[in-house]
Amino acid sequence: MAERNVVSNKLKLVVTYKDANNKEKNRQITFAKLKAGAEPQSLLQVAGAIAGLQADTLTKIVETTENVIEA
């Protein structure tokens, strides 16, 4: 029987800003070693707190989980 084992969890925040030509751009801020099984509400609160420390606008929150599948 195959098993799935979590290798890493990451939280990625996508923020929007305007460049020198007033063109809208996106950048990503990634945090590694996210606790497996973190509640979505907790992630939303943390992302909001981090976003509140900067002038750029938070546009997207992405949780990424990488797994290894073994027999």
Offer a quick outline of the entry:
The chain is of the alpha+beta class and 71 residues long. It is built from one helix and three strands; from the N terminus they run ββαβ. The radius of gyration is 16 Å and the shape is elongated.
Overall 3D geometry? elongated
Q: What's the mean pLDDT score?
A: 94
Element-level helix/strand string: EEHE
Strand order of the largest sheet: 2-1-3
Main sheet makeup: 3 strands, antiparallel
Count of separate structural domains: 1
What's the total count of β strands?
3
Measured distance between first and last alpha carbons? 6 Å
**Helical residue percent?**
10-25%
What is the tally of helical segments?
Answer: 1
Q: In terms of structural class, how would the helical and strand content be classed? A: alpha+beta
* Rounded Rg: 16 Å
Pfam family, one: DUF1659
Protein name: DUF1659 domain-containing protein
InterPro entries: DUF1659
Domain DUF1659: 3-70
